[in-house]
Amino acid sequence: MDTLDWTAKWADYTPDKIAITSYDANKSYTYSDLHAYANRLTDKFTELQLEEGDRIAVLAEHSLEYIVLFVACQRMGIILVPLNYRLSIKEIAKLILDCTPRLLVYNANHKEKVAQLAHHNLKTIAFDALEQYYQTVDRLLEKTFQIKADNPLFIFYTSGTTGAPKGVIYTNKMLFWNSLNTSMQLGITFRDSTINILPPYHTSGWNIFVTPLLHKGAHIGMLEKFDAEKTLCLLELNKTTLFMALPTMLLMMQEAPIFKEVNLKRLRYIISGGEKVPSELVAYWKKEKNIYIRPGYGSTEAGPSITSLHHKMAQLKPNSIGKPNFYLDIKIVDKKGVKVKPNEVGELCIKGDIVTPGYWNNSVKTSNKIKKGWLFTGDFAYADTEGFLYMKGRKNDMYISGGENIYPQEVEAQLEDFKDITKAVVLSVKDDKWGQCGIAFVTTANENLSVVEIRAYLKMNLVAFKHPKYIFILDDIPTTSLGKVCRKQLYTYFNTINSEP
User: Fold this and answer.
1) Which of 158, 206, 372, 457 stands 20 to 30 A from 258 (CA)?
2) Which residues span the membrane (predicted)?
């Protein structure tokens, strides 16, 4: 039995324990089921002449069948490529051309999209057909699989907010060390349970809680789509102990009518990240539910579990992303690669076995991002004198206006300190006079708030060169499927407004 085959281990130790539950399909698989079904699926892949290193692309929401597929691929050394089903056909086709899968697996609700990809001569199969196969076909012989640590396990395509999507390679070694980092920070055991509401086309949908809990022989519940009220009810009914949600999702949950009624006493803490975790959000959940929120920082290229702020420090160190997790090293460097001093801003770099070996079919990008084992994240950060880390924003987000470096996250934080502003996003555009200038988009709880009042507030609290040239008050800030700010839509809005006569 291979030491990286966690499902096989738990099928031996606790065969009858429920491993995964789908709350959409209202069904569960035990560890014994998961082990046997994955083995039968490897037979099907052999029949289809799939081999180590081949890619299987998937167009589907999270499900029990998806987890079975993951285990089977890991055992055979096949690379799983979760595709973002929210993308257009043209965008999906580009990803398929890049990863050249031998097989495309899909859910029935994506059948029309799959039909539009037929000209790519892809071999396709529906999850329903795979499930029918592995549940009805008996396999008498026990197989032994050798899972290789350096074998690629996933290709995760980045969102492409700053360019064309890049395929990040994720290996078995990364899976193992990410699981250890997560488990050590959060004290995960076989007694824990989670509900995954994150999509499978992002590393967080697999590697925040799904694979670490599989490693620990714990229980994983799944919802295909996030629904605030349904999630709250399931957290109570299933006595869930660990939960991951983006700040946007947590805000939606606390605004749900049943929020104050549900009993979440078994929930040890909530992990949040992806966007800035407001200190007000942390304080609200602690006050109303006595639940700690642990902010952290992650990256598709490393882990994704990189830093974590201990839950009891969340209010003592507001806006911090915590300290580095156990099995990794970090450094913060200036433009010349020299380590900066405490409280000085520089680029955050990461080293360890959680770092990707590179990007699929993109050696140039790999060599630019990974140097002597160090991943240059492209994120600006600083560490205080106690070693707690704080983000200053993306390297690509920083802009220079009139010769001054401006970090949008700093301006956003100042805007959100204004009592009537609930959310702020700052972007930059070219400017004939200053080179670049800022655009601020804000939402407010006061419908009478004016741009004039916002500018007066900034004049009193922020040096003039950091003031955004343009300020827009919106009803909502557009977000991606992961709950992150959709900067593309904001730029489109600005360009539309700015081009009007």
Assistant:
1) 206
2) none
Residues contacting 266, CB < 8 A, separation 6+: 239, 240, 241
Residue 162: pLDDT band (50, 70, 90) is: very low
Q: Is residue 450 part of a domain?
A: yes
Burial class (CB within 10 angstroms; exposed 0-12, middle 13-18, buried 19+) of 144 = exposed
Confidence bin at 432 (pLDDT 50/70/90)? confident
Q: Which pair of structure tokens corresponds to residue 263? A: 């009993």
The torsion defined by the Cα of 310, 481, 83 and 371, in degrees rounded to 10, comes to -50
Closest CA to 397 of 389, 413, 409: 409
Q: How many domains does the chain have?
A: 1
pLDDT tens digits for range 287-308: 999 999 999 999 999 989 999 9
CATH number at residue 491: 3.30.300.30
The answer to whether residue 153 sits within a structural domain is no
> Predicted confidence band at 163 (pLDDT cuts at 50, 70, 90)?
low
Q: Which domain holds residue 419?
A: 399-499
Q: Minimal CA–CA distance to 454: which of 495, 491, 412?
A: 412
Does the pLDDT of residue 161 top 50, yes or no? Answer: no
Q: How much is the mean pLDDT over the chain?
A: 91
35, two tokens: 């082990």
